[in-house]
TrEMBL record:
Domain named PylC N-terminal: residues: 4-104
Family matches, as Gene3D superfamilies: 3.40.50.20, ATP-grasp fold, A domain, ATP-grasp fold, B domain
Gene Ontology MF, one: ATP binding
Name recorded for this polypeptide: Carbamoyl-phosphate synthase large subunit
Pfam family, one: ATPgrasp_Ter
Length: 323
């Protein structure tokens, strides 16, 4: 069977539906399965073709159990969705591949870089992309932005504008970085959806200008034919180890037009539905590359520009549910 498994599906209803639509257009009987730590209460699991409860990634048998689940259910492609899965799954790509299962994910060495913001800054420097200056805790210039080198979802992030706001916690917590503050009022924020093929060549580049963010995920955004596309494309057109969807966040200074790399997440981001609806069809390309022999991906620039997405809450109803 040519089934797909999306792990830690949670609330990613749109992503599951996109994969269902593209998979069934090629293999009518194929299914998109999902996993979650609590799938009965995960909306994306409830709309998938079947779901499974999966232990957390920190449990010792996670890889063995996930592999067995994939084998038993005819899974050919696994699509991870959360940061905590990326390291361990990338470390075990060959384990799954030996059983005919493709984990669509970048290399382990790449994952290590983007789980550490200090290494991420080195990556930006290597590819000629500006980033916020990192200060020592003995020598810094206010205002500063403080965040953990291994953090996510804005946990333990602080904007510090006066000396009085700094506490012992900021100085004594070795995970916290002191960074140059890039004022949102002076910058435009973009999240770029990049698609890299099996050979780590860049095939698609869609900048989404953020308009509004809610709970760490974009709520309003618009696709833009941004001036920086040629410059960044040239710098990042081939990066060894990149595969599949890469989400790249940048700030652009309103006055100088200088570009600052903020972070890279080597997975589908929460705002990817806008790029898909603009015709940047990453799920189709994944199916072509990893399920259909000799089906490569051509460079695609014909996505819809100036397409705005306004999000709203929707409901998944479960009838006769016993709590």
């Amino acid at each position: 069977m040519n089934n797909i498994l999306i792990t830690s599906a949670g609330r990613r209803v749109s992503l599951v539906r996109f994969f269902q639509k593209e998979l069934k257009s090629v293999f009518a009987e194929a299914k998109v399965f999902t996993t979650d730590a609590n799938p009965d209460y995960a909306s994306a699991c409830r709309i998938s073709d079947g779901y499974f409860k999966m232990q957390r990634v920190t449990e010792p048998n996670y890889i063995d159990d996930l592999l067995q689940l994939a084998i038993e259910n005819g899974v050919k492609i696994i699509v991870p969705t959360i940061d905590t899965e990326l390291l361990i799954l990338s470390k075990n790509i060959e384990v799954f591949k030996s059983k005919g299962i493709e984990v669509v994910i970048s290399d382990y060495e790449i994952m290590k870089i983007f789980r550490d913001k200090r290494l991420t800054h080195q990556f930006f420097e290597k590819y000629g992309i500006n980033c916020a200056k990192e200060y020592s805790k003995e020598n810094y210039q206010l205002p500063i932005y403080i965040k953990p080198y291994d953090g996510s979802r804005s946990v333990d992030n602080f904007i510090i504008t006066t000396q009085e706001q700094l506490t012992d916690y900021h100085f004594q917590n070795d995970k916290l970085l002191f960074l140059e503050y890039l004022d949102h009022k002076k910058h435009t924020e973009f999240t770029i959806d990049l698609y890299y093929d099996k050979n780590s060549d860049l095939k698609c580049f869609v900048p989404r200008q953020r308009i509004e963010v809610r709970d760490g995920e974009v709520n309003k955004a618009v696709t833009k034919d941004a001036f920086f596309i040629p410059e960044i494309w040239k710098k990042m057109q081939h990066i060894d180890g990149f595969r599949g969807c890469i989400t790249f966040q940048v700030f652009v200074n309103l006055e100088t037009q200088q570009i600052f790399g903020i972070e890279i997440n080597p997975r589908f981001g929460g705002g990817y539905p806008l790029s898909y609806l603009a015709k940047a069809n990453f799920p189709r390309w994944i199916i072509q590359e990893y399920m259909m022999e000799n089906q490569g991906v051509e460079v695609f620039n014909d996505w819809e520009k100036n397409l705005m997405m306004l999000r709203y809450d929707d409901e998944i109803l479960i009838h006769n549910f016993n709590h």
